[in-house]
Design goal:
Helix 3 (106-132) packs antiparallel against helix 6 and helix 4 packs antiparallel against helix 5 (173-193). The mean pLDDT is 85. This protein has four domains: 7-59, no CATH class; 72-230, no CATH class; 234-356 and 472-481; 368-464, no CATH class. It has 486 residues and is of the alpha+beta class. It is rod-shaped and about 130 Å long. The chain is built from eleven helices and 18 strands. The strands form four sheets. Strands 8, 9, 10, 12 and 18 form a five-stranded antiparallel β-sheet that branches. Strands 13, 14, 15, 16 and 17 form a five-stranded antiparallel β-sheet that branches. Strands 3-2-1-4 form a four-stranded mixed β-sheet, with helices on one face. The relative contact order is 0.10. The chain has helices at 33-42, 71-102, 106-132, 141-166, 173-193, 202-230, 296-300, 392-395, 410-415, 450-464, 477-481, and strands spanning 7-9, 18-22, 25-30, 57-59, 235-241, 245-246, 252-263, 269-282, 315-322, 330-331, 336-346, 353-364, 368-370, 377-379, 399-407, 419-427, 432-439, 466-476.
């Protein structure tokens, strides 16, 4: 025993852990006397070794009764660190998966993978807590845990900032706000523990973390702000009359009409709503010719299409109305679609001209995705439609298309309340109408505050890139009856 080196138990550190060394070499550490005996047994010492024998044991900074470790506190703190990191991991992965596998642009996919990889780092950091908050056998675990906490704090700060811009209710709010407070507490704890201590080249480590955070921020800003706004939506709508044909009896005039839509830009787009209207226009000659344009004021305030000298305000009559493309249809760049129709008119109709209108509401596909339910029509006069039913005396009669709208950057989805796109189409005795609006309210047909609902729709329409296009064509009725010879 005299030649056997003494077992030295060092003073407890600030957490209560005491290092064990033999012959100047560290062989382990212990939180308690029981842990010390397990370490000695593993090294081949007798199970019931006399720890008070000064010839074989040397106690520094306290004797065999000095074990200041608070087991329950240490384990609770470690469990909180692990729980927060695992919670952040799940949240980051849930945010990243839709973008990584479903985004339309490369930059948005990269942003999604950044979140997934950040979540993976959170998982690694959670495993590193077991060592760092334990006996710290590895000198790298402190830096790994610190990196995980910094990622969590940056991510949850960004989510809270995005939420504060609108302050809308979302169930994710009860996840990232508590996690923000957790990450702030965890960072304070790790700074107090100097978690970077022992890491080789700590300055390079800090520079690497800063560079990674900067790269992720620039990439995110590019995918969220710049790229979706830099490329415009370019569509070409055309309305073209074909060669008219009289029937055998010369009583009915058949006029071919073609509505053509083509995506001439680089951005795919959804058709939210659309309709066409065909009008017969007639105007009477005026007996009161004063030398001045008639109805100038009405023309200037928009109550008439133009000011005329010899004719009164024209009368418009709806001949035909309908839709060309189903709501929810999408056009990829270069894709085109034609809708052909033949309108039948009495050869003796007292029209001066025939005019065809095509209107279309589109939404950028690179900003959002509409659920498949949007393609299902709902009829307001059908009581079995549930929330879509509206008394005809109060609302009229219309067809509604409604679907959940999800932003292509999932950060928006987790910091904003759900948004639904609604497309209404109705035909009354005078005209055909379409109306498109975005709403988070379940009772979208009769909002409590119409003004507030209109502002919300305008804001969301701008966010998702909703725009309206139109085209029209006019032809003289006399030219239809007597087309020029070829």
């Amino acid at each position: 025993m005299e030649n056997t080196p003494k077992v030295v138990v060092e003073p407890p550190d600030r957490r209560g852990l005491r290092r064990i060394s033999i012959g100047g070499e560290t062989v382990g550490s212990a939180w308690s006397l029981r842990g010390l005996r397990r370490t000695l047994k593993r090294l081949g010492y007798p199970k019931h070794m006399d720890v008070h024998d000064r010839s074989s044991m040397c106690w520094r900074g306290g004797d065999s009764a000095t074990w200041p470790d608070r087991t329950w506190r240490r384990r609770t703190t470690g469990a909180l660190l692990i729980a927060g990191l695992l919670g952040s991991m799940v949240l980051l992965v849930l945010i990243g998966i839709p973008d990584a596998f479903g985004a339309l642009t490369f930059a948005q996919k990269i942003a999604g993978w950044v979140f997934i990889l950040s979540g993976a780092l959170e998982g690694v950091a959670a495993l590193a807590v077991l060592d760092f908050w334990g006996k710290r056998q590895s000198k790298y675990t402190g830096a790994v845990v610190l990196l995980g906490v910094l990622i969590a704090l940056g991510t949850h700060s960004m989510l809270c900032f995005l939420w504060l811009q609108e302050r809308e209710y979302t169930r994710y709010l009860f996840v990232y706000i508590p996690l923000w407070f957790w990450s702030a507490w965890a960072l304070w704890l790790l700074v107090r523990e100097k978690a970077w201590r022992g890491t080789p080249h700590p300055k390079k480590f800090a520079a690497g973390v800063a560079a990674t955070a900067l790269l992720a921020t620039v990439n995110l800003a590019y995918s969220v702000v710049y790229e979706p706004s830099a490329t415009p939506v370019l569509f070409k709508l055309t309305v073209r009359f074909g060669k008219p044909v009289l029937d055998r009896d010369g009583q009915v005039l058949h006029v071919p009409l073609t509505f053509h839509t083509r995506n001439i830009g680089k951005v795919p787009a959804y058709v939210i709503n659309n309709d066409f209207s065909i009008y017969g226009i007639s105007a009477k000659l005026s007996d009161d010719v004063t030398g001045e344009l008639k109805a100038r004021r009405e023309a200037m305030v928009g109550e008439a299409d133009s000011a005329e000298l010899h004719t009164e305000a024209p009368e418009w009559e709806t001949i035909s109305a309908g839709v060309t493309a189903d709501p929810g249809t999408h056009f990829e760049p270069g894709e085109e679609f034609s809708y052909e129709k033949i309108i039948s008119l009495p050869a003796g109709a007292e029209y001066d001209s025939i005019e065809a209108h095509l209107t279309m509401q589109l939404m950028r596909k690179d900003r959002g995705k509409i659920d498949a339910e949007f393609s299902t029509p709902h009829y307001s006069w059908d009581k079995t439609e549930g929330q879509f039913w509206c008394p005809p005396k109060e609302c009229g009669e219309f067809v509604t298309y409604r679907g959940r709208l999800r932003h292509n950057n999932n950060l928006v989805n987790v910091t904003r309340r759900p948004v639904y796109v609604n497309a209404l189409w109705t035909v009354d005795a005078d005209d055909s109408y379409t109306y498109t609006f975005l709403s988070s309210s379940p009772d979208f047909t009769r909002p409590e505050d119409p003004g507030k609902a209109e502002k919300e729709s305008s804001r969301e329409s701008e966010r998702y890139g909703v725009l309206s296009l139109s085209a029209y064509s006019t032809v003289s009725f006399a030219a239809l009856l007597n087309p020029p010879a070829e």
